[in-house]
Amino acid sequence: SSYTLTYFPVKGRCGALKMMLADNGQQLKENLVSIEDWMKGDLKGSCLFGQLPKLEDGDLVLYQSNAMLRHLGRKHDAYGKTVCEASRIDMMNDSVEDLRLKYIKMIYQEYDTGKEAYCKDLPNHLKPFECILSKSKSGFLVGEKISFADYNLFDLLLNHKTLCSTCLDSFPALKSYVDKIAARPKVKALLECESFKKLPINGNGKQ
Ligand SMILES: N[C@@H](CCC(=O)N[C@@H](CS(=O)(=O)O)C(=O)NCC(=O)O)C(=O)O
Question: 5: how many CB neighbours lie within 10 A of its CB?
C-alpha cells in the first residue's frame, strides 16, 4: 500500500497512526499544511468535513482519525481475531477518544486556568485502563496482540507524561505498558527520529 497523509505539522491526531504504520514497516508520504495555507480556504473547502487529517490509501480517501486507525487495524491485522474482540477494541478506542477530547479541550480552551484541575482529575480517567491492563495476559488492551486502540492509548499516554510527568507513578501497569510499546524497535526508531521528535504535540504550542 502507498499511504499519504495530509495534516498540519503537529503530532495531534496522527501520532498514533504514524506509530502504527512505522511498527508495520509501512512508508508514509506526508503533505504538511501550514496554517497560512490552510487559512486561504481552498484545501479546507475540498475536505469532506472541512478538516484534516486526510489519509489516502491508493484510491481510498479517508477523513476522521479514528476511521483511519480502524482502517489500518483491518489492513494490518490489528483489529482482534473475532467479532467480539473487534467490538471490545472499538470500546477501548472510544474511551481513548473520550479522554483525548477532554485533553484537547483543556489544551486549546482552558490550559492556563484548567491544567491543574485536569491533572488532579486525570487519575480517575487512567484508572480504568490501569485495571484493564493489570488483568491482561498479553499486556495489550484486547486479545493476544497489539491493536489500533493500543497505539491510540500509547500516544495519548505519552502526551499526558509530557503534561504531567508523574501522572503514571501510581499506575504500574500503564507505566510498563508505555515502556513496552516504546521499546518496540520500529516504534522506538520513530520516536527517536528528529522529524517526528520536533513536531509539537498540539497546534497551539501548549503541552
Ligand atoms: N474528528 C476529527 C477531528 C479533526 C480535527 O479536529 N481537525 C482539526 C486539526 S486537529 O485538531 O486534528 O489537529 C482541523 O482540521 N482544524 C482546522 C479547521 O477545523 O479548520 C478527527 O478525528 O480527525
Answer: 19
Nearest to 12 by CA among 33, 39, 43, 41: 33
**Ligand 1 atom at minimum distance from 66 CA:** 22
Instruction: Copy the grid coordinates of residue 150.
Output: 493500543
Asked if residue 52 has its Cβ within 6 Å of ligand 1, the reply is: yes
Model confidence at 165, pLDDT cuts 50, 70, 90, reads very high
Report CA torsion sign: 12, 16, 22, 27: negative
Predicted ipTM? 0.99
Per-residue pLDDT reduced to its tens digit, 32-54 = 999 999 999 999 999 999 999 99
Residue 92 near residue 141, CB atoms below 8 Å:
yes
Q: Any idea what the Cα angle at residue 20 is, between residues 18 and 21, rounded to 5°?
A: 65
User: In sequence order, what are the residues at sequence separation of 6 or more whose Cβ sits closer than 8 angstroms to the Cβ of residue 83?
Assistant: none
In the numeric block, the cell 494490518 is attached to: 76
